[in-house]
Amino acid sequence: MEHNKVDTELQDSYDDQEKWVLDSSTDSRGKIPLRSRTGAWRAALFIIGIEFSERLSYFGISTNLVVYLTTILHQDLKMAVKNANYWSGVTALMPLLGGFIADAYLGRYATVLLATTVYLMGLILLTLSWFIPGLKPCHENMCVEPRKAHEIAFFIAIYLIAIGTGGHKPSLESFGADQFEDGHSQERKMKMSYFNWWNAGLCAGIFTAVTVIVYVEDQIGWGVAGIILTIVMATSFIIFLIGKPFYRYRAPSGSPLTPMLQVLVAAIAKRHLSCPSDSSFLHELTKEECTKGRLLSSTKSLKYLDKAAVIEDQNENTTTAEKQSTWRLATVTKVEEVKLLINMIPIWFFTLAFGVCATQSGTLFIKQAMIMDRQIIGTNFIVPPASLFSLVALSIIITVTIYERVLVPLLIRATGNERGISILQRIGTGMVFSLIAMIIAALVEKKRLDYAKEHHMSKTMTLSAIWLAPQFIVLGIADAFTLVGLQEYFYDQVPDSMRSLGIAFYLSVLGSASFANNLLITVSDHLAEEISGKGWFGKDLNSSRLDRFYWMLAALTGANMCFFVMVAMKYTYKSVQPSLAVVADRGDDDDVETATGTNNTSKFT
């Protein structure tokens, strides 16, 4: 009878899990979501749709930004690249603020609404700067220097877009991932595919931007391009709002900084105590008491922080312990969340070199294309320089599709890992391709310089831009591995209450890399001038030595990879305690093992 009662309870739990979403999320009416009517792909497709339009707008501006700064605002190459990197850096770092606000105060859905409104304001101002007479670049079609009013309006517009991106990017991507429940085996597998297809949709927006939008900017006008971007963004925003009944929502959980500080203060206050060898003696909520989020298992890394969860008087009962100040006694889960964030720091740092390589595709690679032969053989059509970035987007789409449909099933059978390879292995694989891309870029640029020297008397004889294709394609393959891997890593490994910030951490890699790229340009140019009397960055590309800069990046990437591998080999993944819902799922053993977090050590090698 007792056995039958347990079986009945398990069956009831399984039935509840299949019908309802039991992960603390709510539907649009604030009630427990019904699985058959909310979330999963039915909701994620609305979210991927607005991401398409946002990436269309962003890359429609960013990939042609250096061209705009040099041709419309008449800045020299060095200043234009620096301004483009500053804007890219701010755009990629703003999500740290946006993610914090989303997780702590507004919630992800509300943050997306607010950020998209600011984004639209930037697009509207950018468009008006080409149609309002007082804001137009020049009085006439040709001018030596643009109006100051246009320059001010332009920079205000693009930095409004940067602010909008700051709230939009981390909130939207994590809001999309929230549509899949971690405790449900089928939806957990869908979530692993979500990041791949999110990037496929993202790249579709990029491809359209660097082909259609860039062509409109170059051949018709920036104002017309601005109208198109504004209409597309506004339309997708309306479609996003239509999907409201299908979404699953998570309430903001307050400042994530407070629990972190509480753990640190408690650990320091009890630094004289010794940690018990058995983690069961550490303070933790029971599964019945834990109503929000998931409980984490204790790990062996950073054992000093475990002192925050040590109960000072082991004779105290559980009720007495729970009455202690949270600044004096923390739970194991809170301690483990702090460990997760600390363990992320070296991973974040050693992916910066990849970020520096990735920034070249939108700045120096485009500038190279500007002075190369872009005419399609047998026609009069000249490919816009920024359109070469479409090779990166196509490369990502093709690589992600092959990885998802072909490589992952093969790797699952070979490794037994439900992802095929671990997240850090995926990131490391992309780094190898970024190194190869920089080597190719250095060789191609040296060939271009030699060709320009041989034909310096001819203004029509320039090397074909097709030579740039390999470096764009290989860098796209690198992005498909590392950028997608970083998105999954930072979303999956941060505390559950900080997932918008997790996406912001991923974006901050690219933002910090843009600033690091500027620093490398300044330092390498200065050192080259000190050593040889001539810097690597002149007024134009033919008086510059980008090939040497690319070789330097290749060397830095190679050295960085060695440190990344060492850190990755010692990394400990998030370890989630098993729950009744997951056990009752009755899935295969690998699913249960991953959900419970029993296999939490790094498998990088």
From TrEMBL:
Transmembrane segments: 86-106, 113-132, 193-216, 222-242, 345-366, 378-403, 423-444, 465-484, 504-528, 549-569
Domain of life the protein comes from: Eukaryota
Secretion signal span: none
Topological type in the membrane: Multi-pass membrane protein
Keywords: Membrane, Phosphoprotein, Transmembrane, Transmembrane helix
InterPro entries (UniProt xref): MFS_trans_sf, NRT1/PTR, POT_fam, PTR2_symporter_CS
Major localization listed first in the record, in broad terms: membrane
Subcellular location: Membrane
Coiled coil: none
Claim: Transmembrane is one of the keywords in the record: yes
Gene3D superfamilies in the record: MFS general substrate transporter like domains
UniProt protein name: Protein NRT1/ PTR FAMILY 5.7-like
Species of the source: Camelina sativa
